[in-house]
Amino acid sequence: MQLLKDKIRNEGRVKSETILKVDSFLNHQIDVELLNEIGKEFKERFRDKEVNKLLTIEASGIAVASITAQYFENSKVVFAKKTESLNLDNDIYKTEVYSFTKNKAYNVMVSKRFINKEDKVLILDDFLANGCAALGLIDIVKQAGAEVAGVGIVIEKGFQQGRAEIEKLGIRVESLATIDKMENNKVRFK
Ligand code: 5GP
């Protein structure tokens, strides 16, 4: 997606060979116009799939999924929570996810009320690195007995293992921008 690649080139900040910061449009400040185009593009990529739920992880995935949901008729957004709280139901799907950026493991949880076995779930996230977040969400969909329609990623780091891990499960991955290499403050796309 050219618009996204241009934005990454112009505003992305390479923090290391493996970490890209995009907090001016995706992870802190949000460019709604760009997200709108991202939503349309996800719909285009998955137009052959029946989807009634968009599943993501808080926090950055929520904006992506919410804007995308407008293009999937009658769909609902569900986001996995990272912290246990009194507000969360007791009846939950839970799985452990290792955070690439924080270098630690944490639980993610979804109330059983919001995913059930009739659901066709498109998983969305901002980044794909080693695939732990997406695999955690896939595990939750499987616990619910629902179907994974695919995984949609805004920015994939193609030099990491995420895609291979997800495709091993026979699940389709669509990324809107795939980075091949990051060095000297420059991003090279596939
Ligand atoms: P994975 O679980 O695939 O290893 O990593 C994906 C998750 O880690 C995403 O949800 C995202 O929040 C975070 N992440 C991974 N790599 C990057 C990166 O280069 N930049 C940013 N901003 N987040 C990343």
Search tags:
190 residues; alpha/beta; six-stranded mixed sheet; two-stranded antiparallel sheet; 34% strand; globular; binds guanosine-5'-monophosphate
Kindly describe this structure.
The mean pLDDT is 96. This protein is α/β, with parallel strands linked by helices and 190 residues long. Helix 2 crosses helix 3 (60-69). The protein has five helices and ten strands. Helix content is 27%, strand content 34%. Guanosine-5'-monophosphate (5GP) binds at residues 19-22, 27, 57, 60, 100-101, 125-133, 162. 5-phospho-alpha-D-ribose 1-diphosphate binds at residues 129-133. Converts the preformed base xanthine, a product of nucleic acid breakdown, to xanthosine 5'-monophosphate (XMP), so it can be reused for RNA or DNA synthesis. Belongs to the purine/pyrimidine phosphoribosyltransferase family. Xpt subfamily.
